[in-house]
Predict the structure.
Amino acid sequence: MTLFAVYVVNRAGGLIYQYDNNLPRTDVEKTFSYPLELVLKPQDNKIGVVFGQRDGIKVGHVVQAVNGVPVNGTLLEDGQEVLDIVSNEANYPIAIKFGRPKLRTNEKIMLASMFHS
């Protein structure tokens, strides 16, 4: 049996301690031609896959890099919008790296408070 995470919650439902067992990241990088078969939309300040699955890319994965340039939120490091680059046919073929989003602190607190109920 594998432990994925440990949460210590006090009686009031607050998160006291959390430990995440680091799982191997399942990043998938794929080169696409126009038009893109996946539907990408902003989700929680990230660009995520909302429709379409193929070659290990699943609904819920987020864009981590475009043509080797890391993505910060909905922008590339050079300030360009990810959705603008993906929608422009002149940018194809394009290499996009997808992966599972990491849990943020608030999401961990919400998850721990569900155990308390």
